[in-house]
Amino acid sequence: MIVASPHDLDAAAVRRIADGAAVELADDLLAALAERRTAMLGVLAAGARVYGVTTGAGAQSVVDLDPDAQARQSTALLLARAVGGAPYLAEREVRALLACRLRTLLGPDSGVGPDLAQWVATLLRERVVPAVPRAGSGSAGDIVPLAHAFGHLGAAGEVLDGGHAVPSAAVLEARGLVPPALGAKEGIALLGGVPVATALVTLAGERARRIARQELLVAAGQVLVAGVSRDPYAALVARADPELAEVLAGLRALVGPEPAPRSLQAPVSFRVVGPVLAHVRRSLDGLDAAVDRALDGVTDSPAYDEEHGVLLGTPGFHGLDLAAAADGVRAAAVHAASVATARLHRLLDPRTTGLPAQLALDPGPHAGLVAVHKRAVGAVHTCLPVAATSVATVETSGGQEDVQSFATEAAESLRRALDAWEEVVACGLLAVLQAAALDPARVQAASDPLRVALSGAREVVPASAADRPWGPDVERLRQLLDAGWGNDTEAIAS
């Protein structure tokens, strides 16, 4: 991927890089970085007093640094802030954060030199994966995980090698890679902003859209095997709501009409499929917009104001926009998983489906899917303790920082919510397959796309409806979902 402008590193590019794409920085872009770097160093040489560059950081910004301390400041900033530990982010997540950090380093505010930008591109090309803590990111932006991500530039830090964190120096030396020496302002530029949260939220948004599409497909199968009324999915229901109109159109295309519904009104969990998934879509649109703002906004503090030749302190580390957007998607995902769990419960009830109780081959001697529903309930419950928003009035740094937004923690909470939702979708898909095994006629009216998708899912689980340990089936279906099952289905492609 050739990057000729910082704007080339948009959310789609971040995801491509996460999946393995390498980055090459255009010569003109590097030349512009060098020119800007020279101008910023001229501002510092003129005697500007700059936070974290000529002074200490946080509450210690009252301390002016002598020339020797200033020369060491960029590497010193990385050392004592590396306070995290295992578990670590996965390689895909680390690559995404490196891409987001590169995006801001290339922007007009960082004032870093081309060597540093080239080094980040080198890490991506050579698939060097810094060991970045998943938890314990603390506050004041992403300084803790970023101190780990770039600790190797301060002759410290660890990288992942075979899944284990090992000292970075030996790995880099073995690969013949020599990190650049950090200059003035470059250390604080590496630590500024919320690129970790931006990366994690970018990946989570893509994943949430995939699960939402799969949830629609599974819900369509559940509507079909339960024989519920199609009234709640009529086009009239979506008046003045374009997102709902798209969801309901997709659902109608998948399930077709039901000339003889089993009851006048289905349980609420069936009737609200459309509004629930439409809300997920709206929440994700807000998340995408927040990611775009994070990638393009001012995240450096201090930020180099090229027009006026000054360095400015900014609130670019606060991350409220991302935190609030992630919280919104998490709430939508937890609600969707909760409704899907209720729908799964109704599928076990013969009063709703007319099928054997608990979808058991022989109720009584056989337990059917009653424990599969319990697993879904447990998955949803794991999300409920994190319902609070990711903002708090918590003082750190001797009172210098008296309010925090926990954007990286919000991204992690969203990841756990998506784990739970995916698990519930897998349990719901197993119920559809079990219902079809008990009564194959239930899926004969399925649309071709739905029939093909269900056939693909059936290939990874036994065709028998008899009791067995259901856990392996759920896990195989989760792997199928993670691999993108159903996402090429025309009716749910949007």
How is the topology of this model organized?
Blueprint (H helix, E strand, L loop, with lengths): L1 E2 L7 H8 L5 E2 L1 H19 L21 H13 L11 H15 L8 H12 L17 H7 L8 E4 L2 E4 H7 L11 H6 L3 H32 L15 H14 L12 H4 L1 H24 L6 E3 L4 E3 L7 H28 L2 H4 L16 H12 L9 E2 L11 E2 L1 H32 L9 H11 L12 H12 L12
Parallel strand pairs: 1-2
Antiparallel strand pairs: 3-4, 5-6, 7-8
The tally of structural domains comes to 2
Please tell me what the overall shape is. elongated
How much helix is in the residues?
40-55%
Do you know the CATH architecture of the largest domain?
A: Up-down Bundle
Q: Write out the strand line-up for the largest beta sheet, numbering strands in chain order.
A: 1-2
Please give the largest β-sheet: 2 strands, parallel
Structural class: mainly alpha
Helix run count: 18
The unreliable regions are none
Rg over C-alpha atoms, rounded to the nearest angstrom? 26 Å
H/E element sequence:
EHEHHHHHEEHHHHHHEEHHHEEHHH
Strand content: under 5%
User: What does the average pLDDT come to?
Assistant: 92
Write the CATH homologous superfamily of the largest domain: Fumarase/aspartase (Central domain)
CATH class of the largest domain: Mainly Alpha
Number of strands: 8
